[in-house]
Automatic annotation (TrEMBL):
Domain Helicase ATP-binding: 217-383
Protein name listed in UniProt: Replication restart protein PriA
Quaternary structure and partners: Component of the replication restart primosome.
Cofactor comment text: Binds 2 zinc ions per subunit.
Family under the similarity heading: Belongs to the helicase family. PriA subfamily.
Length: 736
């Protein structure tokens, strides 16, 4: 038996009866010893092993450690008919687990989410529609037949069919018995369409230099990280697609990560136009059947390119030749529950382990990446201007200190005039306000009480569209009260401040002739509806667009020439060290929506602090100087990327108990002091209460070179949290 193409010193073939260590993805799992099965097995094989009364999925991780008496060991039940997990992916999982202090089984779970991996019988037999009619039609049977029909005559496995139709296996088996469904041996999977890398685009100017450098990096192979920096519309995508093309020519596979599922379909269409076929698509919106097919195609090397969300990093590539992380600064790359990891950093890790280049693309890179490029750890390629005739928007501040606005008005006169001029000229204007709902606060005018969530430390936000108050942290809703819940006075409850829905009222009143579109994630029941709205806007079906953060991301609106930021100061409040960086990124991204085609755009920022250094930098001050100043501030404070940080988040139902435990942990800081690390807190976490659980955070700060993970493991290992208390480790927290 071949070792599945896995090379490397640690790969071994085991004879029947040899001791093997098998890693399972069970919550309390670890590498356990088993005896190799009759047919033998090799490192990386997916196997089914007995665990207590159950049979579970596992991966052969290496030789057994021999701690158990051979006579008492159980045997591997069977080896699954799937390509073995390669040494490179195993090493990646192990390193990622060490880095994030995540138990290895939880990491393995990220890599074995491919549905149906465990149900090997389904791998061999497939089902297709048969000639006979069922004797009796039930709802469940109808669903099964409809699911098969929807599959256009293609065969499905039992597991896939049950999942698609939402029925148990017995329903399907009943139909098989009657001949309404035929069972047959699985044909080979349809291959993925081949991409044609030679459908050339002619790069121009800076693009040529950048494209050549990336193509050379791919051709040469080996690890290296490159920051590809260029304003929105400068052609970053065209440039890295050249590198993808080279990767495909070399017969290797390319992975492109995008931060938003909403961006993938536009991207796939673009790749299809360029390479003549669609690449593989991997994210939570893809059907189980397709994901399973893609998983196998990636493992066998038949899928040459994958476009996906962060979880695509855990796919079993056969020969990865390039990773691209587009919009690398995007905060949604950080997974904030379950396993806490930053997909951008993990992409760099995986590239380093498998020895391939990684490209981080952004108009507004994260400070970490900027510094790494500045220090020469990453290469850096710059695209200086927008492609073709498109120019960067003119940016100006509107000093709100000089504006007097009527009650319930947020659009200043200069901004209103600019909007009017654009709309009259048949162009589009975007008003940006990063606040969902109608009003951020509901207050009692009699006593000053602000309505909060019962379970979270958050104010409830009025959503007029839903006619309810909504907690943006846990999603809880309640009716908008007419009587104050605190003082009992009636009729004095009032919305305070603007959300996008309220801004829409002002726009409708002031521009009654304009067609209005509101883009806010909560206004759309489905990703499809959101996509349709975006397409409508792109086609010119709206004059004024009001949007939250979702409009800042990558969409292309050719008619849009004016961006008005309602409150540019919004993100600058608060004490977060990243506030300046985030505000800069967001404002530049939003402004970048203006004037992407022939028409020059304009961005107007309403601000009360026009002289604030961040506002000045956004308005076209020296960008590199801004980054350098930010970096200097972090260096002085010993903060990332110059120092290392980790958060320990403790949560539980009783706030005193959570604080007590955190305090006790903070006192036992000897393991941290040994590496000269400091503990701060306990303090309420950035989200202090969610779904009734109180969250308390300890922040640990260490030198760049300190062995932080080992010290953390020893430190938290000293105290076992009580059963109702949860502890999560957050390496490189997003806010500090
Ligand atoms: P970015 O990724 O930096 O935002 P894109 O790659 O999306 O920029 O390029 C912006 C627009 O310009 C796209 O419509 C793209 O097709 C076009 N474009 C960029 N470079 C070229 C080129 N060399 N030839 C033809 N079109 C280009
Ligand atoms: Zn809540």
């Amino acid at each position: 038996r071949e070792a599945g193409g896995v090379t490397g010193a640690e790969d071994r073939i085991f004879a029947p009866g040899d001791r093997v260590g098998v890693l399972t993805a069970e919550p309390l799992g670890r590498v356990l010893d088993y005896l190799a099965p009759e047919e033998g097995c090799g490192t990386g094989d997916f196997v089914e092993v007995p665990l207590g009364p159950r049979r579970v999925l596992g991966v052969v991780w290496g030789a057994g450690d021999g701690r158990f008496d051979a006579a008492r060991l159980r045997r591997v039940h069977r080896v699954l008919d799937a390509p073995p997990m390669r040494a490179e992916l195993r090493a990646f999982l192990a390193r990622a687990a060490d880095y994030t202090l995540t138990p290895l089984p939880a990491m393995l779970r990220l890599a074995t989410r491919a549905p149906g991996l465990g149900d090997a019988p389904g791998l061999r037999r497939v089902l297709r529609a048969g000639p006979a009619e069922p004797d009796r039609m039930t709802d469940a049977r109808a669903r099964v037949l409809a699911a098969l029909a929807a599959f256009g005559g293609a065969a499905m496995t039992l597991g896939e069919l049950c999942a698609e139709a939402g029925v148990t296996a017995s329903v399907v088996k009943g139909l098989v018995k009657q001949g309404a469904i035929l069972e047959e041996d699985a044909p080979r999977d349809l291959p993925y369409p081949r991409l044609d890398p030679d459908g050339q685009v002619r790069l121009e100017g800076d693009q040529v230099v950048a494209g050549d450098a990336l193509v050379a990096a791919v051709a040469q192979g080996g690890y290296g990280t490159t920051l590809l920096k260029g304003v929105t519309g400068s052609g970053k995508t065209e440039v890295y697609l050249e590198a993808v093309a080279e990767c495909i020519r070399q017969g290797r596979q390319a992975l492109v990560l995008l931060p938003e599922i909403a961006l993938t379909s536009e991207f796939l269409t673009r790749v299809e136009a360029r390479f003549g076929a669609r690449p593989g698509e991997w994210h939570s919106g893809v059907t189980q059947t397709e994901r399973r097919r893609l998983w196998k195609m990636v493992a066998s090397g038949h899928c040459q390119m994958v476009v996906g969300a962060r979880s695509a990093l855990f796919l079993p590539f056969r020969e990865l030749g390039l990773i691209v992380v587009d919009e690398e600064h995007d905060t949604s790359y950080k997974q904030e529950d379950g396993v806490l990891y930053n997909a951008r950093d993990m992409a760099v890790l995986r590239a380093a382990i498998c020895g391939c280049p990684v490209v981080l693309a952004s108009a507004t890179p994260s400070l970490e990446t900027w510094v790494n490029a500045d220090l020469g750890k990453y290469a850096r390629l710059d695209l200086g201007s927008r492609f073709g005739v498109a120019e960067l928007p003119v940016m100006r501040a509107i000093d709100m200190r000089g504006e007097t606005l009527a009650a319930d008005r947020w659009i200043s006169e200069p901004l209103a005039q600019a909007v009017r001029a654009r709309v009259t000229a048949g162009e589009q204007a975007l008003l940006f306000l990063n606040r969902r709902g109608y009003a951020p606060v509901t207050i009692c005018r009699a006593c000053g009480h602000q309505v909060g969530c019962d379970d979270c430390d958050a104010r409830m936000v009025e959503h007029r569209f839903l006619k309810r108050l909504v907690c943006h942290q846990c999603g809880a809703t309640k009716p908008v009260p007419t009587t104050c819940p605190a003082c009992g006075v009636e009729g004095r409850m009032a919305p305070v401040g603007p959300g996008v829905e309220r801004l829409a009222e002002e726009v409708a009143a002031r521009f009654p002739e304009a067609r209005l579109a509101v883009l806010s994630s909560d206004l759309f029941g489905s990703a499809r509806a959101l996509k349709e709205q975006i397409a409508t806007i792109a086609d010119g079906g709206a004059d004024i667009i009001i949007g939250t953060q979702i409009v800042a991301k990558g969409h292309n609106f050719p008619l849009l020439t004016l961006v008005g930021v309602i409150d540019a100061d919004l993100g600058l409040q608060g004490s977060d060290l990243r506030a300046a960086e985030r505000t800069f990124q967001l404002m530049r991204q939003v402004a970048g929506r203006a004037g992407r085609a022939e028409r020059r755009g304009e961005a107007l920022l309403q601000t009360h602090q026009p002289d604030h250094p961040v506002i000045r930098a956004i308005l076209g001050g020296d960008e590199e100087a801004f980054w350098r100043a930010e970096a200097e501030e972090r260096r002085a404070a010993g903060m990332p990327p110059f120092g290392r940080m980790a958060g320990i988040i403790l949560s539980g139902p009783d706030v005193a108990q959570v604080f007590d435990f955190a305090g006790e942990l903070a006192r036992r800081d000897a393991p941290l002091r040994r590496i000269a690390a400091q503990v701060f807190g306990p303090a309420p976490a950035p989200i202090a209460r969610i779904r009734g659980r109180h969250r308390v955070r300890l922040l640990v700060k260490a030198d760049k070179t300190a062995p932080l993970q080992a010290a953390l493991a020893e430190w938290i290992g000293q105290l076992k949290p009580p059963a109702n208390l949860r502890l999560a480790v957050d390496i490189d927290p997003q806010s500090f």
